[in-house]
Write a structure and sequence with these properties.
single chain; about 375 residues; alpha+beta; 8-stranded mixed sheet
Length: about 375
C-alpha cells in the first residue's frame, strides 16, 4: 500500500543524508584555512604556489579567476578541475585537501617553465581562488600572503607562505604570536574604474618625512610586475625628492654610478655597505601615507635592488601610462618580506612591518607536517 507518510519520510531522510554528505564534503578541511608554499620564479619574477597536482599556478593579485590552458578538444569556456593544498592551523600543514574548482581556459598558458596556470586572487564574487576556497572549505574570504624574495638580495631560502581562509599565521618560533593580528597598518580597499585588483587611496608620498607627492592617489597592488611602477607625474617629483635627500648630509655613503635599466638611480653598493642593517641599505625612507592614517613604509630592504656585485638601484620605475592610470602600482619587490592580510569580506588591506627589521622573513614558516 502506498503510504504518503513513509514516502515523505523517505524523501526527508534522503534529503538529510545528502545534506549531511555535502556538509561532510564541504568540511573536508574541517572548515580550516588552506596553506600554500610560495616560490619566486627567478627568470620571470612571478610568484607561484603548487596548487594543481603539485604543479605551480601563478599567484596574480590582478586576476579575478583561476585559469588553465585550453583543452584543444573542448575549446574555450570554463572547466571544472581539482586543486589541492594542505589544511593548516596557522603553524604547520595538517593534512592534504583536494577540492573542485571552476577555471576558465586561457591560451596561451602563462610564461614560466613549470607553470600550469593562474590562481587569480583579485576580488570577485565567485571565481577567484580565495572565493572558491572560501566556498568549498567554509572559511572566510580572506588571505594572508607573504611573498618571498629570490634569496639573492635578502636572506631566506626564498619560499614564502600563503594562507587562504583567514589567520592565524605563525612564523618560527611560534611564540612570537599570530602575525595576522600584528599589523603595522590597515587601509580600506577600493575599486578603480572597474579594473580587477586591489586598490587603496593614499594622501601623499613622502621621502624622509618631506612631502614629495600630494594626494589623493590611487595605489594598486600587483604580484605580476616586479617593481613599483609610478605614473610619470608621480615618478618625477618622487625621484627629485629622493635625489635631494640622497645628496644630503644624512647619506654620505650614497655615491651615484651609471644607471642600469630599467632603473635610473643606481649607487655604488660597496660604499652603501657601511650603512647595511636589518632594514637593508641606509637610504632615504619612502613613505606612502594611506587614507585612514596608516603608512606603508619602504626602507632600503624593499627599495634597493642589487643589480650586480657593486651596484644597487632604487627599485621604482616610470610607468608608460598617464591620465587615468593609478598613480602607483606597488610591485612584487616592494611587497616582499612583509605579511599582507587581504580581507575581502571587510574590504580591508592589512600589512605588517618589513619582517627583516624584526629578524624574520617570509621563509620562516614551518612547512613540516604537525606530528
Ligand atoms: C602538504 O605539505 C607537505 C609538507 O610540507 C608537502 O610535501 C605537500 O606537497 C603538501 N601538499 C600540497 C597538496 O600542497
Ligand atoms: C665603488 O667604491 C669602491 C670603494 O670605494 C671603489 O673601489 C670602486 O671603484 C667604486 N666603483 C664605482 C663604479 O665607482
Ligand atoms: C616545525 O614543526 C614540527 C612539527 O610540529 C616540529 O616538530 C618542529 O620542531 C618545528 N620546527 C621548528 C624549527 O620550530
Amino acid at each position: 500500500m502506498w503510504n504518503p507518510k513513509s514516502q515523505s519520510f523517505l524523501i526527508i531522510s534522503l534529503l538529510c543524508m545528502s545534506a549531511l554528505s555535502t556538509w561532510t564534503a564541504a568540511s573536508n578541511g574541517g572548515g580550516k584555512p588552506l596553506l600554500a608554499a610560495v616560490t619566486k620564479d627567478a627568470s620571470t619574477s612571478l610568484y607561484t604556489a603548487p596548487l594543481k597536482d603539485g604543479r605551480p599556478l601563478v599567484l596574480d593579485l590582478s586576476s579575478p579567476a583561476i585559469s588553465l590552458p585550453c583543452d584543444a578538444k573542448k575549446g574555450k569556456g570554463t572547466v571544472t578541475t581539482t586543486l589541492s593544498a594542505n589544511a593548516t592551523d596557522g603553524k604547520n600543514p595538517l593534512f592534504p585537501v583536494s577540492f573542485p574548482a571552476v577555471a576558465t581556459c586561457a591560451t596561451p598558458p602563462p610564461a614560466g617553465a613549470a607553470v600550469v596556470g593562474v590562481a587569480g586572487l583579485a576580488p570577485s564574487g565567485r571565481s577567484s581562488f580565495p572565493a572558491q576556497v572560501a566556498r568549498t572549505q567554509k572559511v572566510a574570504n580572506k588571505m594572508a600572503l607573504c611573498l618571498p624574495s629570490d634569496g639573492k638580495t635578502t636572506s631566506g631560502d626564498s619560499v614564502g607562505v600563503a594562507i587562504f581562509g583567514g589567520g592565524p599565521l605563525f612564523f618560527i618560533p611560534p611564540d612570537r604570536g599570530d602575525f595576522t593580528a600584528m599589523l603595522a597598518g590597515t587601509a580600506r580597499l577600493h575599486g578603480f574604474h572597474g579594473s580587477p585588483g586591489y586598490f587603496v587611496s593614499a594622501t601623499g608620498i613622502t621621502v624622509e618625512q618631506k612631502q614629495a607627492v600630494g594626494g589623493p592617489l590611487a595605489v594598486g597592488l600587483s604580484s605580476t610586475i616586479p617593481y613599483t611602477a609610478l605614473r610619470p607625474d608621480v615618478y618625477g617629483p618622487l625621484v627629485k625628492a629622493w635625489d635631494q635627500a640622497a645628496s644630503g648630509p644624512s647619506f654620505p655613503w650614497m655615491q651615484r654610478v651609471a644607471a642600469v635599466a630599467p632603473f635610473e638611480r643606481c649607487y655604488n653598493s660597496t660604499k652603501l655597505a657601511v650603512s647595511l642593517s636589518r632594514l637593508g641599505y641606509g637610504v632615504p625612507q619612502i613613505d606612502v601615507a594611506l587614507e585612514g592614517g596608516a603608512s606603508f613604509l619602504v626602507v632600503g630592504g624593499n627599495s634597493m635592488v642589487q643589480v650586480d656585485a657593486d651596484t644597487a638601484c632604487l627599485g621604482f620605475v616610470r610607468s608608460g601610462k598617464g591620465g587615468q592610470a593609478p598613480a602607483a602600482i606597488i610591485g612584487g619587490f616592494q611587497l616582499e618580506n612583509r605579511l599582507l592580510v587581504i580581507d575581502e569580506d571587510k574590504k580591508q588591506l592589512g600589512f605588517t612591518t618589513f619582517l627583516s627589521a624584526i629578524g624574520l622573513s617570509c621563509s620562516n614558516f614551518n612547512f613540516t607536517h604537525a606530528a
